Amino acid sequence: MPKYSRRVLSGIGIASALALALTACGGSDDSGSGSVDAGSVDAALEKGGTLTVWAWEPTLKQVAADFEKEHPKVKVKLVNAGTGNDQYTALQNAISAKKGVPDVAQIEYYALSQYALTKSVTDLTQYGADKLADTYSPGPWNAVKSGDGVYGLPMDSGPMALFYNKTVFDKYDIKVPTTWDEYLEAARKLHKADPKAYITSDTGDAGMTTSLLWQAGSRPYQVDGTDVKIDFSDAGAKTYTDTWQKLIDEKLLSPVAGWSDEWYKGLGDGTIATLATGAWMPANFASGVKDAAGDWRAAPLPQWKAGEKASAENGGSSLAMPELGGNEALAYAFIEYANAGKGVKTRLDGGAFPATTADLNSTEFQNTAFPYFGGQQANKIFAESAANVPSDWKYLPYQVYANSIFNDTVGKAYVSGTTLTDGLKSWQDASVKYGSEQGFTVAE
């Protein structure tokens, strides 16, 4: 299972198309009007055809094989067009050329609203996708919705948890933090005991920052079509910066970049003692930090206020149908099979983390023992986290670009005298400027 960290993406290739598409956003949109009779989907399956699916998620290979076996007249052509930005660039190029557009595409949650706004993906309500609302946990379902439309079906989710090295914590008599204030104290205690050890690594990451803001109650983005408001000065943002700035100022964060060889080494030798991230992480521990098996455990995400149970999502993807793709009914049949039907269990067996509430709440899922975590039933923690994700978070309709400039704005707080508060304001200003240039009405 690959990592689902929200990558810092460049908006190259998408920006110009976004600006052009906005000029048409006020017009009528027939793609989501009416409904498609269920019989047409059945008829499409009976007729068969070739379906092109662009995705990098490895468990879809078995799903595609099973789908073909169940529907012998259907051929699924699974294409890895790149991960994240590489695929988005290729997809935008195909859309612009109106040639080679896939029938189905994997699109991460934070990027989906951009495609929905520009009407580059099909509204799935005409296939009854809106009736699947109760099938999914709140965070992923909210991410695939835009207004009354549903522009993809959730493939997985990333409710957050705190992974910690129990061996290191026991060695230095550090209690598992239940609040971020306790986390700060644990960071101080650990680094004092061993100057080479850090509570975590953080060199500035857009996905991590937005997830912690989400959990803290900050809602920096308000979006209503092409009307956008960006404000990083709310109380939730201050809650986050007050604590995280101390971690930076006191040099309690490892300067090792995430997903690097050094990072994996730090997770293995105990010099990076915790990781707050999505519930998809266990497979990465098992494959990338093999020697530390048995040392690590999962715990609920620390709270900004004692006694609360707020969480947030970190990572995750949907399967969507590009508007210019063909075989619409057949494409929807595959998406529903993969993300709401038999394909879900296949993907879970392959190591994916579910977005479906039935699986999150099942006894089998929650009682699964993780040998890597000393036999811990970690899914119980992850499932509770998924249920506690506030569903009112919104991403910018140009979040791909916004994330690409994170290191040039907020990222400076990690390498210079710039504060996180000033960095967030710089990110805000740059995002406002870009949005206005692309034709959005942007307020602060």
Describe what you observe in this structure.
This protein is α/β, with parallel strands linked by helices. The protein folds into two domains: 15-157 and 316-360, Periplasmic binding protein-like II (D-Maltodextrin-Binding Protein, domain 2), CATH 3.40.190.10; 160-312 and 393-443, D-Maltodextrin-Binding Protein, domain 2. The protein has 19 helices and 15 strands. The protein has helices at 15-22, 38-47, 60-70, 85-97, 109-117, 138-144, 166-171, 180-193, 206-216, 235-249, 261-269, 282-288, 328-340, 343-349, 357-360, 363-366, 379-387, 399-404, 420-437; strands at residues 49-54, 74-79, 104-108, 145-146, 149-150, 153-154, 160-165, 200-201, 221-224, 227-230, 253-254, 274-278, 296-299, 317-320, 441-443. A five-stranded mixed beta sheet has the order 2-1-3-14-6, with helices on both faces. Strand 1, helix 3 and strand 2 form a beta-alpha-beta unit. Helix 2 packs across helix 13 (328-340) and helix 9 crosses helix 10 (235-249).
Provide a short characterization of the protein structure.
By secondary structure, the chain is of the alpha/beta class. The chain has helices at residues 15-22, 38-47, 60-70, 85-97, 109-117, 138-144, 166-171, 180-193, 206-216, 235-249, 261-269, 282-288, 328-340, 343-349, 357-360, 363-366, 379-387, 399-404, 420-437, and strands spanning 49-54, 74-79, 104-108, 145-146, 149-150, 153-154, 160-165, 200-201, 221-224, 227-230, 253-254, 274-278, 296-299, 317-320, 441-443. The protein has 2 domains: 15-157 and 316-360, D-Maltodextrin-Binding Protein, domain 2 (3-Layer(aba) Sandwich), CATH 3.40.190; 160-312 and 393-443, D-Maltodextrin-Binding Protein, domain 2 (3-Layer(aba) Sandwich).
